[in-house]
Design goal:
This protein has 476 residues and is an alpha/beta fold. The chain has a domain of 261 residues: Aspartate Aminotransferase, domain 2, CATH 3.40.640.10. Helices cover 44% and strands 13% of the residues. It is built from 16 helices and 13 strands. The strands form three sheets. A seven-stranded mixed β-sheet has the order 3-9-8-7-6-4-5, with helices on both faces. A four-stranded antiparallel β-sheet has the order 10-11-13-12, with helices on one face. Strand 10 and strand 11 form a beta hairpin. Helix 6 packs across helix 8, helix 6 packs across helix 12 and helix 14 packs parallel to helix 16. It is globular, with a radius of gyration of 25 Å. The structure holds pyridoxal-5'-phosphate. The site of pyridoxal-5'-phosphate has 13 residues, from helix 6.
């Protein structure tokens, strides 16, 4: 053996540890399955929140090798037992997650096979899956098949892609930035402001539109503002509506905003990251009228379709506007991207190499069909009403009848802001069910957001009991 061969062989003796043997794989999987099965079975009586902080250095890398068994134990103690538990049906704060099991199966498969789905050439059928899902969403939201779309990591990146397209369509750059105006609801998700900064629009003029008494954009005021701004020589180019705001779940008057956008030549973007998929519930579909007229929309399957975190989708009607920033042909890619059709996912996103995340939606849709998703969404809407009824019976004041599954309430005590804050702290100490808070018209309110597929009528009964306990402690 010459020296080179010997060195290679010596290194192989060490590096081969990265390819576990069949029996090692079996053992790993068995341990992992045991842990995940127990986790799921324990969920219904696990707390939804624990305020316990992380043990210092517990997660540090160790110099000696660890067994999977000991790492799972550590995971259970440090990760699974602390903080908010998005997998729990008792998570009713912020916008809940979920994490349907069959998505996890897809993720496993995707990671083992590690297909490359940034461009069509490398995995045509993997890319086809992304297109099948995007076409399904185009159909759902009344977008034309000529629209482009992308499965991104979440709503923030999906919104970033849409806003970049709006910027490029209207050539908002250089001197034009300072005179350009974007119209927003003050309740828009903060990832919008973040995206604007990232894409160089920090210095555009942001015009916050007053809301009506149900936290929706007042379309008359919007139109007045646009007219006035144009008279002043400004350049209105973008209006952003929400199909379900984070704070109150409000759906802006989409159809009216579409009329106004068309009349004044503005790009109309809709953030439906939280609420968009409620369009699947036939009896409330009419609330989304006008969504089909938007230039771009964002929806989050890791919210409204109960997937584990890591999937947000964007649809944009104007393909060229998206391509302006996202298409780049490097020499070293010449054999990979010779043909333009079907659309390469990398041409609609800042990502080149991406997680094969389409499978985590495709597999559940194929395995379960769409009906359980529809039923689950409708169930969440009804549970919201059920929760409100229970709170009213306890003497709480309620926010307006909700558009979707976010609502808020407060107890009418003497110093209500202070009282409800103390009440929420007590609820967090209890932790059986997790609720968050917000400020609506200077009032501190407790907020419910019902979106986890594991939130059931028993969960709401538990929440009401927990609130009753805390309330009795405070007023007795
Ligand atoms: C959650 C949310 C976002 C942000 O999406 P991420 O998936 O968290 O990045 C944007 N808009 C709305 C309305 C949301 O609820």
């Amino acid at each position: 053996m010459n020296d080179l061969t010997k060195r290679i062989k010596d290194l192989h003796a060490i590096s081969c540890a990265l390819e576990p043997s069949a029996s090692e794989r079996k053992t790993y999987l068995k341990q992992l399955l045991q842990y995940s099965d127990k986790f799921i079975e324990d969920l219904s009586h696990m707390k939804a929140f624990s305020g316990e902080s992380a043990t210092p250095n517990a997660m540090n890398l160790k110099s000696e090798k660890q067994s999977l068994e000991s790492l799972l134990e550590l995971y259970d103690k440090e990760v699974a037992a602390k903080g908010i538990k998005p997998a729990s049906g008792g998570h009713l704060g912020y916008i809940p997650g979920g994490g349907i099991y069959t998505s996890a199966l897809a993720d496993y498969l995707v990671d083992v096979t590690n297909e490359y789905v940034g461009i069509n050439f490398s995995c045509p059928s993997g890319v086809a899956i992304e297109h099948v899902l995007l076409d399904w969403m185009k159909d759902l939201f009344g977008f034309p098949s000529s629209a482009v779309g992308n499965l991104a990591s979440g709503g923030s990146i999906a919104n970033l892609i849409a806003l970049t397209a709006a910027r490029d369509k209207h050539q908002v750059k250089n001197e034009r930035i300072k005179n350009s105006v974007i119209y927003l609801s003050p309740q828009v998700h903060h990832c919008i402001q973040k995206a604007l900064r990232i894409i160089g629009l920090e210095d555009v003029q942001i015009s916050y539109i007053d809301l009506d008494d149900r936290s929706r954009i007042n379309a008359d005021i919007l139109e007045e503002r646009i007219k006035k701004d144009r008279q002043k020589g400004l350049y209105p180019f973008l209006v952003i509506g929400s199909a379900g705001t984070t704070d109150t779940g409000a759906i802006d008057p989409l159809d009216r905003i579409a009329d106004i956008s068309k009349k004044y030549g503005l790009w109309f973007h809709i953030d439906g990251a939280y609420g968009g998929f409620f369009i699947l519930v036939d009896r409330i579909k009419a609330k989304f009228k006008g969504i089909e007229r938007a230039d771009s929309i964002v929806v989050d399957p890791h919210k409204g379709l109960f997937l584990p975190y890591g999937l947000g989708a964007v649809l944009v009607k104007d393909k060229e506007a998206v391509y302006h920033s996202h298409v780049y042909r490097a020499n070293y890619m010449q054999d990979a991207v010779s043909q333009e059709s079907p659309v390469h996912p990398a041409d609609v996103s800042p990502e080149l190499t991406k997680h094969f995340r389409s499978l985590r939606l495709w597999l559940p849709l194929q395995l379960h069909g769409i009906e359980p998703f529809k039923a689950c969404l409708d169930e969440k809407l009804l549970l919201t009403h059920y929760f409100r009824d229970g709170l009213q019976a306890l003497g709480f004041e309620l926010g307006p009848d909700p558009d979707l599954s976010v609502s808020y309430f407060w107890y009418p005590a003497k110093d209500p802001n202070k009282f409800n804050k103390i009440l929420l702290e007590a609820l967090h100490r209890d932790g059986e069910v997790f609720l968050s808070s917000t400020i609506i018209e200077d009032r501190f309110v407790i907020r419910m957001a019902i979106l986890s597929f594991r939130t059931k009528i028993e969960t709401i009964d538990k929440a009401i009991k927990m609130i009753e306990r805390a309330l009795n402690d405070l007023i007795s």
